[in-house]
Design a protein that fits this description.
Elements lengths: L3 H12 L11 H15 L7 H12 L18 E4 L6 E5 L6 H14 L11 H15 L6 H17 L7 H7 L1 H12 L5 H34 L6 H12 L11 H8 L3 H13 L3 E4 L7 E4 L7
Antiparallel strand pairs: 1-2, 3-4
Helix pairs in contact: 1-2, 2-3, 2-6, 4-5, 5-6, 5-9, 7-9, 8-9, 11-12
């Protein structure tokens, strides 16, 4: 799993939001953060081979055993396979490496021709994005990173057609149900009828948009929450509240308990109980579930003005 904080630090570094560049330990997170910023900042530019190679270098430049910033060159077939040895099932076989230069030249030409003002313009953003992603994934031009680059291409297509950088993450939504994604992709790659793929992808895009809106709403509530209780928390309470807020819109799993409080701030049971009671009295948290030892707490974001 990627370090969430390292991804955030990488994005802030690339946007110039950090007075001093933060150290990003997770090299994968650093690459993805850099890629995310570049996809959005260059969304209006035509797609080029150089841009795809640059994205690949951003993403996997730290890898020592991969061909980075170039098409795959291995003569062996690029296959998606499952099953035990001797009982393998080939789900898909990409074009051989010898034809990649031609295939990608055609893909890039199609992508730019279907963009805004192009000779074969596709005006419906989700439709163009769905086809672009499927087209790229079916060529599978890189040794690794095709999925991540393919999603970057899909987001670029959405942004170009909409006319502004879109604020959503297809990767996050797809990762939440990878089985559905691979099933839809495999079905589409076995037929010239891609209706079901487009339906799946449009649904996924809408889900990603909804998640983005929910996240923005949550961030605004989080900001107002801190403004309301500015200076009211002691150091222990502040650390726990931050931990609960960092859990995101879905909330802190299982709610906060005295035992979890003790574990987070390394304090006594009496202190944890007293801190939680004070947080409840000031309206920062509210009890959920049963009482007594089984009492759990959640953030009280449903305050006036939040």
């Amino acid at each position: 799993y990627l370090s969430r904080q390292d991804v955030i630090s990488s994005i802030r570094n690339n946007l110039g939001l950090n007075p001093t560049l933060l150290n990003v330990r997770d090299k994968k997170a650093k690459g993805i953060g850099t890629l995310m910023v570049d996809v959005r900042s260059s969304y209006a530019e035509p797609l080029t081979i150089e841009k795809l190679f640059k994205w690949h270098e951003m993403l996997l430049g730290h890898e020592k055993n991969l061909t980075v910033g170039a098409w795959r060159s291995d003569q062996a077939p690029m296959q998606v396979v499952s099953g035990a040895y001797g009982k393998e099932k080939i789900h898909f076989e990409a074009p051989p490496s010898a034809s990649l230069a031609k295939e990608m030249k055609q893909f890039i030409a199609w992508f730019n021709a279907t963009g805004p003002g192009g000779k074969k313009e596709i005006k419906k953003a989700p439709l163009r994005s769905a086809i672009a992603h499927l087209y790229f994934e079916s060529i599978h031009p890189f040794e690794d990173g095709n999925g991540r680059i393919g999603r970057a291409i899909a987001e670029k297509a959405l942004s170009q057609t909409v006319g502004r950088p879109i604020l959503l993450s297809l990767s996050r939504t797809i990762e939440a149900d990878k089985k559905a994604y691979y099933n839809a992709l495999e079905t589409a790659q076995r037929s010239n009828d891609i209706t079901s793929w487009v339906a799946y992808f449009v649904k996924t895009t809408l889900a990603a948009q909804l998640q983005a809106e929910q996240l923005i709403d949550y961030i605004l509530k989080k900001t107002k929450y801190f403004d309301k209780f500015r200076g009211a928390f002691n150091d222990r309470q502040l650390k726990v509240i931050q931990e609960m807020l960092d859990a995101g819109p879905d909330g802190f799993v299982g709610g906060m308990s005295a035992q979890k409080y003790i574990s987070i701030v390394k304090t006594s049971k009496a202190t944890a109980t007293r801190d939680l009671q004070l947080l409840t009295e000031m309206g920062a948290i509210k009890p959920i579930g049963g009482g007594g030892r089984s009492t759990r707490y959640e953030l009280n974001l449903a305050l006036a003005g939040l």
